[in-house]
Write a structure and sequence with these properties.
The structure holds two protein chains of two kinds. Chain A is built from no helices and eleven strands. Chain A is mainly beta. Chain B is globular. Classes of the chains: A mainly beta, B mainly beta.
């Protein structure tokens, strides 16, 4: 069984640019959540997608947007990058709506904004 | 929105039992409590989940009092490899719009 994968592993962008991060959920998982983790802090919930629909959102501005595809893979898009967006971005998938608590995380994408 | 608080760090020795508490005073009726372990440069790993009372699996136990305003992760007989950051997560209702809040994290150091 393949776990959650994310791409790219590392990324360097300039302030004001746009970035797209990708996540492939674990086989059979229909729910994907995205988190931002700044250095030394806990993950902060960005949003969650269930069967291609946004199913939850944290306190992030609209320039953070996402998509989930029919195969349940997902993208996180961030527009107008700011220096504070530098962080580890984590994707997690869950097996079903009845087991949302059971999240399986990918290794993350380390984004650096200069 | 639930707010969670954990001790910043804890120290233990191999073979001891470790109890890490998370405070979540304004937990909602439908919120679950989940605990994760995170090693440096890795994503968090699911440990255990509960709603109320006590839950036990092969690696840990989770104690939740009746008022559900706190929870305690219990790790029996820790080893050096249990050195990691431990997070509680509140939320993940089985229905409705999700609002998930990770705790501040507890850095556990296990020494020989």
């Amino acid at each position: 069984e393949t776990g959650v994968t994310q791409s790219p592993t590392h990324l360097i962008k300039t302030r004001g640019q746009q970035v797209t991060l990708r996540c492939s959920s674990q086989s059979g998982h229909n729910t994907v959540s995205w988190y931002q983790q700044a250095l030394g802090q806990g993950p902060q919930f960005i949003f969650q997608y269930y069967r291609e629909e946004e199913n939850g959102r944290g306190n992030f501005p609209p320039r953070f947007s996402g998509l989930q595809f029919p195969n349940y893979s997902s993208e996180l898009n961030v527009n107008a990058l700011e220096l504070d967006d530098s962080a580890l971005y984590l994707c997690a998938s869950s097996p079903s709506s009845e087991r949302l608590y059971e999240q399986y995380f990918g290794p993350g994408t380390r984004l650096t904004v200069t | 929105l639930a707010k969670t608080t954990q001790p910043i760090s804890m120290d233990s020795y191999e073979g001891q039992e470790v109890n890490i508490t998370c405070s979540h005073n304004n937990i909602a009726t439908n919120d679950y409590i989940t605990w994760y372990q995170q090693f440096p440069s890795q994503g968090p790993r699911f440990i255990i989940q509960g709603y109320k009372t006590k839950v036990t699996n092969e690696v840990a136990s989770l104690f939740i009092p009746a008022d559900r305003k706190s929870s305690t992760l219990s790790l029996p007989r820790v080893s050096l490899s249990d050195t990691a950051v431990y997070y509680c997560l509140v939320g993940l209702m089985n229905t409705g719009f999700q609002k998930l809040v990770f705790g501040t994290g507890t850095r556990l150091l296990v020494s020989p």
